[in-house]
Design brief:
The complex is a heterotrimer of chains A (279), B (437) and C (193).
Chain A lengths: L1 H24 L6 H9 L13 H10 L11 H12 L9 E5 L20 H6 L16 H5 L5 E3 L5 E3 L9 H5 L5 E5 L4 E3 L7 H7 L9 H5 L4 E4 L2 E4 L6 H10 L5 E3 L13 H5 L1
Antiparallel strand pairs in A: 1-4, 2-3, 5-8, 6-7
Helix pairs in contact in A: 2-3, 2-4
Chain B lengths: L16 H4 L4 E2 L6 E4 L9 E2 L6 E2 L4 E4 L8 E2 L4 E10 L5 E9 L19 H10 L12 H4 L10 E5 L9 H8 L1 H15 L3 E7 L3 H14 L1 E6 L8 H9 L14 E5 H12 L6 E7 L7 E6 L4 H8 L7 E4 L6 E3 L12 E5 L17 H5 L6 H9 L3 H6 L10 H5 L6 H18 L1
Parallel strand pairs in B: 1-14, 9-10, 9-12, 10-11, 13-17
Antiparallel strand pairs in B: 2-8, 3-5, 4-7, 5-6, 7-8, 13-14, 15-16, 15-17
Helix pairs in contact in B: 5-8, 11-14
Chain C lengths: L1 H13 L10 H6 L4 H30 L8 H23 L1 H7 L3 H4 L3 H12 L4 H29 L11 H16 L8
Helix pairs in contact in C: 1-8, 3-4, 3-7, 3-8, 4-5, 4-7, 7-8, 8-9
The chains are: A alpha+beta (279), B alpha/beta (437), C mainly alpha (193).
Amino acid sequence: MLAAVISLGSLGCFAAILLAMAARRFAVKVDPRQAALLDVLAGANCGACGYPGCSAYARALVAGTARPDLCRPGGPETLARIATILDIEVAPGEPQIAVVRCRGDRQQSRAKYDYQGLEDCRAAQKLAFGPKTCPGGCLGLGSCVQHCPFGALSINEQGLAEVDRDRCTGCGLCVSVCPRQVLALAPAGSHIHVQCNSPDAGRKVKNYCHVGCIGCRLCIKTAPECFVMEGFLAKVNYGHQKPTAMADAMERCPHHCIQDLAEPGEAAPHSPSVEERTS
Amino acid sequence: MKRRSFPGGTHPPQHKSATADTPSEICPLPPELVIPLAQHVGAPAVACVNAGQRVGRGQVVGKPNGFVSVPVHASTSGLVVAVESRPHPCGAELPAVILQPDGDDVWAEEYLTQSFHVLTTETMLERIREAGVVGMGGAAFPTHVKLDPPHGKTIDTAIVNAVECEPWVTADRRVLLEQRDKVLTGLEVLQKISGARQMWIGLEDNQTDVAALLAPHCKQRGVGIAIMPAKYPQGAERQIIYAITGRRVPTRGLPMDVGVLVQNVGTVAALTDAVTRARPLIERMVTISGPDVARPRNLRVRIGTPVAHLLKHCGLREEAAKVLLGGPMMGTAQHTLAVPVLRGTSGVLAFRRQDITAPAVGSCLRCGRCVAACPMHLLPTFIADYARRDALDLAERFAARNCIECGSCSFVCPAGIPLVQSIRYAKGAILARRRST
Amino acid sequence: MIHLLLILVGAVLVNNFVLARFLGLCPFLGVSKKVETALGMGMAVTFVMVVASACTWLLQYLVLTPFDLEYLQTIAFILVIATLVQMVEMIVRKSSPVLYQSLGIFLPLITTNCAVLGLAVLNIQQGYSFVESLVFAFGAAAGFTLALVLYAGLRERLTLCPVPDAFRGTSIELITAGLLALAFMGFAGLVPG
């Protein structure tokens, strides 16, 4: 009994001394903030920050080579905590959400050709720039759905991508995947969006889509400063929103491409499809 | 006569009898020619004519832009209506010279016949470039670049590629039969420029009649005829080189790295015109075929003739559901018939709705047929799987970039999986990622 | 010489630590998602096993046997192995950050790994000499690495397979591991005795 206690005790002490010496001799300084940051980050390893995983982002943060507001799934809370750990001041950015900037479903917009092949928008885009005549319209083959780490996207029956506002974290992965940039990030607080992405002039748009922005500028006349024109396409000026005026503009938009996404259920008035009308 | 082949490959139904033995015809001039400035690999030509200008047949309408570029010529005499963007077979709208033929079809200048024996290599290369000769098998790579290998690379074997492994297409066969003398002169030009000691004409074993006709002429000139089993993709550059010489082109290398030069038959015939008569490449043999074409045949078509005009000339049984430029295996489907015939267009194929049943996509059975069929020794099923999951690193590790996109894997897949389509996507994505980082 | 070779082959294939003795299943299931990490883990285990078997052999025959303390074998071995692994981790971290990046994260996992302890105990039980125990350790580690890399390769492919919903995840992975073990049973009888 005594021999056991003594021998094991001495062995333990020997090991302890050895380890203590080794720890001193081979000490490596690691920033404790890195571990703290890793706890704070969302932990989804989604890669939306541009780094391979949360730990890589944490390391970049400690090294000071990364901006603190890149963890989109974490949102403002994470940003605030990162700021506390790194002892820096940041203005909390508004949380963002993905918006599908297209309403041109199978009924409403014209197809350029019949696509057969890989069910992937990026592959379809390679064949004569996509099977839709509109160069900016949603192809509806679901590359964004496949890449959304949060299951917030789906393709509806009419072949358009849809965002689940409750699930979307605004990470922006879908925006980078979409070959036509149909998806865009917008402030999560805004409800009214221009749901069109066609860069073409009105005459051309009318030719292939019933619900495309024709660049008539009626929205800008109704609600000045709330909308801006980029080429032939109206866009919401998210920094300057007046709900009543914008609701007015929404009513007056001749092609119904300004939509209030907070109130689903109100379907666009049915109009004959492009094929019916032009043939 | 040698009889060799390459490992892998498939046997798609040939469908060549529809056009193989019908003599070619001259296609009448269309009311409007669309001559794209980008018809070759490399920098597009720069337009040097304006709307309203009258041009003669063979006049330069687009000047080359850099070394890997060739001029573009007016295919007939007439009036330049516009220089604007028009649908291009690649799917985009690209700048083109729109020409309204005046019907006179007069050459812009007189061309003299001159024996190539008195010309220096430099002069011949210059003439080939001036004539805008590009690879007419489909890739449309400028021929003068191919014939002028960088210092240190020598060519010892030249192969004339008459292997039309694509079903339906018989344009090369008709060129060999109808323009035999041009091809044979072109062979001599090719030999003189490249300095190749060995010359071969590669044919598939369904063209033995052509081989028999060529044999005495080839023997006289010391040109070998290589007969290879009819197998797709026998006409692909690496595959024909392996079949004839037994050499393997390195993964990222070019045929010139193993001392080989491969030229399409049509290109060789065009070389003769370019060198001995200084005439530009403004016409080519095009196979108009497919189950929807009422009178399938080969046509000698002016470059820039819209596809709609060709199909109208040959007649359609019903409205075409799918029109391909090139062969059915590697050709590109078109969404409009306004696209013109380019220097690299070997065929126009029209299909009806019932001819293009797309198989329902099933699950991979691991049968390995795609692996056996791949002429590049790849594992198509794995690469396609990785591509579908965006595992680009894995796709690259499985050598996705070596894929020649011949489509054998998709053709043999019993589950109808779009394999080559996925691999092509992966290739593009890998390249895009490489460019961005 | 033949004798040592037999020990080696026996440890790698016939009595594979993971697939025949069922030791070290934790890292086998845990660190086998990717071939690269599996290989890193295998390297770490190889290093630790060889060093640990040397240390424990010396401990057994220089300390425990002379002082009649064989009954302390288990606890003493654990102590030595844990100390050893900790020290190795520190040294690697200091001397080679690159190696630590690829290997270091696995070291704490091995600290209390049953495969390492099992190896030390087996060395004594089989009555191996010092050289024999080193060969046995290397063979065992090589067998572990082999099993791990094979399994990781299978799992990489498994992610691409259309697996029925009920079998998704751990269940199909365990079935795969079982099939791999079955395959290794084919080596039984390769080495006589």
